[in-house]
Every structure is written in C-alpha cells, then in structure tokens.
Amino acid sequence: MKLKNLVQLAGFRERTKRYPYEINDFDLGNGTLVHYAQWLHPNESKKSIDIETVDAYREILKEGDFCIDIGAHTGDSTIPMAEAVKNEWVRTRA
User: Fold this and answer.
1) Is residue 61 in some structural domain?
2) Enclosing domain of residue 41
3) Phi/psi-derived region of residue 89, left when phi > 0, alpha when psi is between -120 and 50, beta in every other case
4) Domain tally for the chain?
C-alpha cells in the first residue's frame, strides 16, 4: 500500500489538479474548419489534425459507419474518424 492510500484511508482527499486548455483551429482544406481543445497538461504533446489522417480513415470507414475510439484520451483520433464518416457535430463550415 502506498503512503497516499493511507492518507485517503484516514479520510483525507487529494486536491483535484486542473489544467488549462487552448482552442486550436485546423483547416482541412476542403472547406472544413475543426476547432480542437488542446489540453495543456505538462506531459501532453501538441496535436495536429489534417486531411491526410481523415483520408487514411476513409480507406477503412465509409459514410455513415459507426466506430469507437477506445481510450480516446484527448480526441485527436476521434475527430478525424468522425470527419471520415461525416458526423455533422464535428464540422464547422468556414
């Protein structure tokens, strides 16, 4: 058992850490602008969403398909998947 678990057993709770985010815009070049909230956790890497990734998903997914991104984390794979199957909640027309 770890020391922090003993503290929790004693009835003390850890403070929840909160990290900011920034909104990044990615232009897919086909009239689609994606707004993406980048989490600013110290261990998080910069994300990028591009049309090449969407096209790669279109090779295995078709319009209207249902897919699940297990372990989605920040959604940098989920958004191109949704764009590939044309889920309108992701899109914003420029």
Assistant:
1) yes
2) 18-90
3) alpha
4) 1
Residue 23 maps to a domain: yes
pLDDT in tens, the chain (94 residues): 677 677 777 777 777 788 999 999 999 887 888 888 888 988 888 888 899 999 999 999 988 888 888 887 777 888 889 888 875 544 444 4
Q: Does residue 65 form part of some domain? A: yes
Give dist(CA 13, CA 2) in Å, integer: 14
Give, in degrees to the nearest 5, the angle at Cα 62 between 59 and 66: 120
- The answer as to whether 13 is a domain residue is no
Residue with structure tokens 């989605």?
72
> What is the pTM assigned to this prediction?
0.66
**Distance, CA of 84 to CA of 78 (rounded, Å):** 10
Cβ-based neighbour number of residue 62 at 10 Å: 10
